[in-house]
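hey m, so remember when u said the tokens were messed up on ur end? i reran from scratch. heres the input so u can diff it against urs
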Amino acid sequence: PVHVAAPGLHNVLNALACAATAMEMGLDAGIIRQALEKTALPARRFEVTANVAGAMVLSDYAHHPAEVRALVRTALKLGRRRILAVFQPHRYTRTRSLGAQFPPAFEGVDELVLLPVYSASEPPLAGGTAGDLYAAFREQGVCRRVLMASSRSQVWEYAKRRLMPGDLFLVIGAGDVDRIAEWARDWAGHGEERSCQCGLPELSPASRVAADEPLAPRTTFGVGGTADVWVEAGSVRDLAEVQRWASEKGLPVRVLGAGSNVLVSDMGLRGVTVRLAGGRFRRIERAQGGVRAGAGVTIPAFLSWCEREGVGGYEFLEGIPGTLGGAVRMNAGAWGFQLGDFVAEVVALDSSGATIMKRPGGPDGPVFGYRCSSNLGGIVLEVALKIGARLDSCEISARRREIAAAREWMRGLRCAGSVFKNPDGDKAGRLIESAGLKGFRVGGAAVSQRHANVITADDGALASDVLALIEIVRSRVRATSGVDLEPEVVVLE
């Protein structure tokens, strides 16, 4: 017998082919045996790069379905507890041509994360995106769990929290995905804390802190992963403590309001996620000829207050299930109006935990654009608004009912409203419908039959279903009309 130091039936067959060729050339059998026994695989061919918390990390250059199939079959023989994998598709043309062949090649993998296509200088191609490949996996249902990722760093941060002793983590692809394996090698043995909650300052009883908080129930899509650290801030002081601590640790801080214009990644949110829960954040009052309201005030609560107080002009917000803080940040609008036109002052908390005030038109003041804003100064705490019009409650109520009736069809849907911004001189919904995508589905996410610029999520849907569908819609609209749609929904990861 001859021992070949390269696992896998495919390597045995390669060795036999080499031996047969050498024998045909007249080489001595002893020399052939010695050569085969000294054979070593090159880098990125079944290369074990690290051991992370008892999990083996293995890098492989496979990027064709046949190569992936051989890799996975060999990996299964290692007998590890679970197999987790990240795959970076290589070239749009290959992904489009061979997309349907990839899912069966991954049979036996417990969890797979798909990265964006490594273009190798190719332009994007409709039908050849990572979203299209993900759709093939969801349709064939081979892997137990398939997720979409936007970057290598996102995958690595997720893997550090996901890997357990006895697992095997496969890093697969011919592009730059091997950087993840290098990070694993550099990180292994450092003993770094997996939880970033360590050292969080003690907050007052008015605030609540939790680790690995599920975020799906806190968004209108009803999908997504968990927050590493979740803080329900009961006071500005507590929020400032969290902001200062996170800044010192180099951790991101995000505010999640009503979760109505966001999509939380299935891989969860790193850093700190905050909800403004204290009384100051929910306060509304008249002030200096206008209205001053906390960023945590919900839009329905704000509109009800306006109706009681005879403050008109804000009826265009009817049916938007967000908070004022989120509405200011995204410059929410409808029916030809936008909230930024009514903002007189923004009070925010900067990264050092200091409170600052900014006025539109002032030095470095807030700037509002189409469904966006800038220079808000940090986390919005409260906003001063101009009175749009003085109306009696009956007039305001009638306007609200009229707008609510137009939005009635969306009531109860798991969605985020408009997914894409309207391009200049056109409507995103018209372009999507023209591309033949009404009703198009990926997993549990579908383009609405009623309005093509709305994506809905069914029971059992994943955030990755929505992400894949967004990518497919963008690529097909680009191919049919030449327009690159810009998402309005904010993806949190």
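this time it looks ok to me. The chain has five domains: 1-40, 44-187, 208-277, 280-406, 413-492. if urs says something different then somethings off w ur setup not the seq
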